[in-house]
């Protein structure tokens, strides 16, 4: 991890932020723009204001990595409250319904979670950022529209319960708080898992806490708080970031020259998905993918 004592002098690369609760991802990106001294900053995957944890931010040329990083798996720690549903499927929304969760046995809980594990079809939360006819779904909900989103395929690789605690609603209704870890594909809504688990159990459910602990190879142990970044701006250099996220292919100087000039090369046989191409002196040249035995450039990093 490269650190710069002054803003705006760090290399192209990724900034791994431990986002605090209460801030939007857009606000965090704005802070990083100020720290880095550049407007060329973006992020790989939004976190809701309530959520904390790993937010991967690209600076300068590393913004070209972001669309590909967003396709990786993510890991979350969450608290699901059974017995209450909310209009937003999380604790930031008004309670829509309350029902006792006192009758829920552990085997019923495990069965409900099993139904939401693996390759599933998930209807995203209505208050998501998904666009419906060019307008964000949450904006339509705020404007009083009844939004119906289509189910989409997602993969929940693991959905593990760590603890189950009794809780009580303001009106005295028995509730259950379930601590879980979820590993899933990009595009999976943990709020929707909480909603669907509660619906399956007949009690309703919503999220009361959410922390993202990993995005692809980047874990919370690599992340920096905004206060730390303001004090000393930390960047994961673009070459190191690409090598950690994608299969690596080292090429000769001549192959690098040809790739830079748009000449396709014989594919290295490293499988589907982006491949990070490095030339001499450990220089990141491009991201490529294999098409019919040849390389196709997804993003170039030599200007």
UniProtKB/TrEMBL annotation:
> Pfam families from the entry?
TruB_C (PF09142), TruB_C_2 (PF16198), TruB_N (PF01509)
Q: Where is the Pseudouridine synthase II N-terminal domain?
A: 33-190
Return the EC number.
5.4.99.25
Keywords from UniProt, A to Z, are: Isomerase, tRNA processing
As its record notes, the protein acts as a catalyst of: uridine(55) in tRNA = pseudouridine(55) in tRNA
Annotated tRNA pseudouridine synthase II TruB subfamily 2 C-terminal domain residues: 246-301
- Active site, renumbered: 48
Q: Which GO molecular function terms does the record list?
A: tRNA pseudouridine(55) synthase activity
- Where does the source fall among the domains of life? Bacteria
| EC class | isomerase
Q: Where is the tRNA pseudouridylate synthase B C-terminal domain?
A: 191-234
Q: Keyword DNA damage on this protein?
A: no
Function, as annotated, reads: Responsible for synthesis of pseudouridine from uracil-55 in the psi GC loop of transfer RNAs.
Check the record and name the PANTHER family matching this protein. PSEUDOURIDYLATE SYNTHASE TRUB1 (PTHR13767:SF2), TRNA-PSEUDOURIDINE SYNTHASE (PTHR13767)
Q: Entry's HAMAP family?
A: TruB_bact (MF_01080)
Q: Which NCBIfam families match?
A: TruB
Record-stated family: Belongs to the pseudouridine synthase TruB family. Type 1 subfamily.
This one is known as: tRNA pseudouridine synthase B
Q: Which gene encodes it?
A: truB
